[in-house]
Write a structure and sequence with these properties.
121 residues, single chain, alpha+beta
Length: 121
């Protein structure tokens, strides 16, 4: 998804599944703690339903609506963490696993030379 979109402009937009079936309306947007980039959207799935979290990547914003590349049933079965709270790394991991997405390993730490080894000059 475009990362330069102001997350406040996503709230209130309609969301559709991979088949074009309406899921609901975007209720909240969650930013990545490290980068500040929009990462998750909470979608209100109905009048008395709960919010379902969907990944903004690989979703697309098309004609002002969010198109999520997953089946509606998978989205509705996503773990429910409630809205208005911070998502913990463990909760995000559960969501990534639910959608079958690979978080990717963090980049390796640089190898630093912290000084001379004993016996070498």
């Amino acid at each position: 998804m475009q990362t330069d979109i102001d997350p406040r402009h996503l709230i209130g937009r309609k969301a559709y599944d991979r088949n074009g079936t309406r899921i609901g309306t975007i209720d909240e947007v969650y930013l990545d703690d490290a980068t500040g980039v929009p990462e998750w959207a909470a979608i209100r799935t109905g009048l008395f339903s709960r919010d379902a979290f969907v990944p903004l990547e690989p979703s697309e914003l098309i004609d002002g609506a969010l198109h999520v590349p997953f089946e509606r049933s998978l989205i509705k079965d996503a773990p429910d963490f409630g809205v208005g709270r911070h998502l913990s790394p463990e909760q995000e991991l559960q969501l990534y696993h639910h959608y079958g997405l690979d978080m990717g390993a963090p980049p390796p730490l640089p190898d630093h030379d912290f000084g001379k080894l004993a016996g070498q000059e």
